[in-house]
């Protein structure tokens, strides 16, 4: 691509990233478990990694962006510009006893772009969701009913660098800006006097930053085989932002609300994120087969929420994923597709209380997908079908089965390449 077209493409990509910020803030889900803590946490992956159950700590590719480990950015070719974005459709099936419910939503999932700065240095920037809240259900209380609702999301805008230090060894760092608002509301209506309701709103407005540090080391076995080790560390920190707590009496006839509580608090001393530790292993054969294994640990039991450390469990996840390309160069369409699959299992961070005591939330995910090449260029259409089961132990509460269909596009363009042909 000519220098002029490269500059124009980069400008359009940056403009799209700016537009993506408010769109990303409109992520939608329906999960009763998103009412706990900061909501349902995103997998922090894009593109190919999503079809491999979110693996990526040791994954390196010059054709796909891997934000799971910023050290992977250095693998990009010096003439390549990558731009990646994706959307998804979620279908949630929930069951509690004999009660069943299904809901459908769509979300803008991510936007990212990557480009080289030098032979040994590359940069990446983008916008992804950090967590999402979305639920609406009604329950019974003494002499009345209570409706619990929640909405909103915390998002992440990031800029990262990846660099080669010496042969086989790369390091990287992401600087992330966290922003967004989540709202949890409760409305209680008495069966004795239905004209009056008691409402409570709890709003968390986040404006914060965090960094993540990554490293990868590649060990060549022979010309066609190699192993890569990867690690990521994200420091824990107190959360910055504001909390708004309000309570009032709502008259259903007049529509007027009389507030008896309206407080604003700082999040810094009462809310925090834990550190995150991640490690991964990748085996690559002939640039056609990639097998990955990841493990993630987060000590959420030490994190604060509403000035307490009793809300969360330590979270961990193990995941394996693979990608297979039948032929690197082929005129056969099916031989040119990148086939992907993965599975993960782990415990999420909410500590869910019931009449029988505390419960853990477990998640099992299975994904399959494909990277479909676009004709006449190196861009790829990424398709992922994912199934996630959420369940609690030891007490079985609401069972949740989620089907997520994701569609993404990775633009792969030559960066400041000037043709010799005129």
Describe the structure.
Mean pLDDT is 89; it is low at 1-11. The relative contact order is 0.17. The strands form two sheets. A 14-stranded antiparallel beta barrel has the order 2-3-4-5-6-7-8-13-14-15-16-17-18-19. It has a two-stranded antiparallel ribbon with strand order 9-12. The longest helix has 22 residues, at 3-24. Strand 4 and strand 5 (144-166) form a beta hairpin. It is built from one helix and 19 strands. By secondary structure, it is mostly beta strands.
List keywords for this structure.
mainly beta, about 5% helix, about 425 residues, 1 helix
Task: Walk me through the topology.
Blueprint: H1 3-24, E1 40-41, E2 80-96, E3 99-118, E4 121-141, E5 144-166, E6 169-190, E7 196-220, E8 225-234, E9 237-238, E10 241-251, E11 257-266, E12 272-273, E13 276-285, E14 289-298, E15 315-324, E16 338-354, E17 357-373, E18 380-393, E19 399-414
Antiparallel strand pairs: 1-4, 2-3, 2-19, 3-4, 4-5, 5-6, 6-7, 7-8, 7-10, 8-13, 9-12, 10-11, 13-14, 14-15, 15-16, 16-17, 17-18, 18-19
């Amino acid at each position: 691509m000519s220098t002029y077209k490269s500059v124009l493409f980069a400008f359009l990509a940056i403009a799209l990233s700016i537009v993506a910020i408010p769109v990303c803030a409109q992520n939608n889900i329906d999960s009763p478990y998103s009412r706990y803590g900061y909501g349902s946490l995103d997998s922090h992956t894009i593109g190919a990694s999503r079809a491999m159950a979110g693996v990526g700590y040791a994954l390196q590719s010059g054709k796909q962006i891997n934000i799971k480990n910023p050290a992977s950015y250095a693998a990009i070719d010096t003439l390549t510009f990558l731009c990646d974005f994706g959307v998804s459709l979620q279908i949630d099936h929930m069951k509690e006893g004999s009660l069943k419910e299904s809901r459908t939503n769509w979300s803008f999932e991510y936007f990212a772009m990557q480009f080289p700065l030098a032979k040994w240095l590359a940069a990446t920037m983008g916008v992804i969701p950090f967590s999402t809240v979305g639920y609406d259900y009604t329950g019974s209380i003494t002499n009345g009913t209570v409706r619990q609702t929640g909405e909103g999301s915390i998002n992440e805008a990031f800029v990262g660098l990846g660099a080669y230090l010496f042969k086989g060894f790369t390091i990287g760092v992401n600087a992330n800006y966290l922003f967004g608002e989540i709202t949890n509301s409760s409305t209680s209506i008495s069966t004795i006097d239905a004209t009056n309701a008691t409402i409570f709103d709890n709003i968390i407005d986040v404006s914060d930053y965090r960094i993540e540090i990554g490293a990868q080391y590649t060990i060549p076995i022979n010309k066609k085989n190699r192993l890569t080790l990867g690690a990521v560390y994200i420091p824990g920190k107190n959360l910055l932002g504001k909390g708004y707590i309000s309570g009032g009496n709502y008259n259903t006839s007049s529509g007027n609300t009389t507030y008896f509580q309206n407080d604003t608090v700082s999040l810094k001393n009462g809310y925090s994120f834990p550190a995150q530790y991640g490690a991964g292993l990748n085996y690559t054969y002939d640039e056609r087969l990639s097998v990955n294994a990841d493990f993630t640990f987060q000590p959420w039991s030490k994190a604060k929420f509403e000035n307490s450390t009793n809300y969360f469990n330590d979270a961990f996840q193990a995941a394996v994923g693979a990608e297979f390309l039948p032929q690197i160069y082929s005129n056969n369409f099916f031989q040119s597709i990148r086939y992907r699959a993965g599975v993960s299992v782990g415990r999420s961070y909410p500590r869910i209380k019931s009449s029988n005591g505390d419960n853990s939330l477990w998640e099992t995910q299975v994904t399959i997908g494909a990277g479909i090449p676009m004709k006449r260029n190196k861009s790829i259409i990424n398709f992922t079908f994912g199934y996630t089961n959420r369940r609690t132990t030891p007490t079985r509460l609401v069972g949740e089965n989620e089907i997520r269909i994701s569609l993404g596009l990775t633009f792969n363009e030559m960066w400041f390449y000037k043709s010799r042909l005129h």
